[in-house]
Amino acid sequence: MKYTILDPHTHIIPHREPVWGWGPHFYAEELLETLDRGYDVMGENKRIEKAIVMTGIGLTAVGHRSITESHEYALESVKKYPDRLYLNPIINPRLDLEDQLYTIREWKDEYQVVMLKLHPSMHNYYLPTYRPYPGEASKKMIYPTFELCRELDVPMMIHMGEAPYSFPAQIAPIAEAFPDVPIICAHSGANNVPSNALDAILLAKTHDNVYLGSSWVQMPELIEMYYALGPEKIIYESDCSPAALGQALRLVTNLHLPLPLGVGASKDEVYRMIGGNAAELCKIPL
């Protein structure tokens, strides 16, 4: 076990985010500065070695941009800092899906694509359901994105946390249709309702290919997650920016504390959650 930290959920943008409104910018250099700050990890001062970056979500939803236009700054940044940054393209399946998938194939090696991202809330669609409607219509949009994950051998991250499109249980049908594609349930659905993490825990406990992201999850639910699933299915993520990277990291590393503040997790277990799990799924050398 290498004691290295990887943040698999960060956003960079050279101007104000057009939907969420955070900003006025978060440059790649600002992210790297944030990664390089000293963080107390079980009594050691550690920096975060690598990060997976996404564009500002709103760029994929408003302004009628192509996938290349909405990811322009993220692409430039990964190219500029290839030893630190990797790319997670955000797919809007309501737009020209064939073009997006073709473009991502072209990006795979040059821009270090290690994951794909869906955001049902931002783009307003249901994931495939068990019932025919909207299940069949959704399959036409979503199945090709998972087929690309399978082809590229990368996991899918799915944003969760809002009604009506982003409850963790809605991942179940697609997880069963693509059992060989790892799925990261971003935020564990807890970014607006903390108790949604309990729904995510049940999802991950019953589906081998589902992993739970820790951003916005509160400590009681994170402790429940550890006892229900063990450290192998918990993935530290900051959602920086707009969320505070250090605060998100501290919540997970605090699991090493004894009860009732933590669970007494070992050093190896903590580093599995804050680096090892994501690195294995995304095949990133640490």
Features:
TIM Barrel, 286 residues, 6-stranded parallel β-sheet, globular, 11 helices, alpha/beta, 3-stranded parallel β-sheet
Number of strands: 11
Distance between the termini: 10 Å
Largest sheet: 6 strands, parallel
Structure annotation, total helices: 11
Indicate the CATH topology: TIM Barrel
Shape label: globular
What sequence of helices (H) and strands (E) makes up the elements? Answer: EHEEEHHEEHEHHEHEHEHEHH
Low-confidence stretches: none
Strand proportion, as a percent range, falls in 5-15%
Tell me the domain tally: 1
Helix content: 25-40%
> Class in CATH?
Alpha Beta
Structural class: alpha/beta
What do we call the CATH homologous superfamily?
Answer: Metal-dependent hydrolases
The average pLDDT score comes to: 97
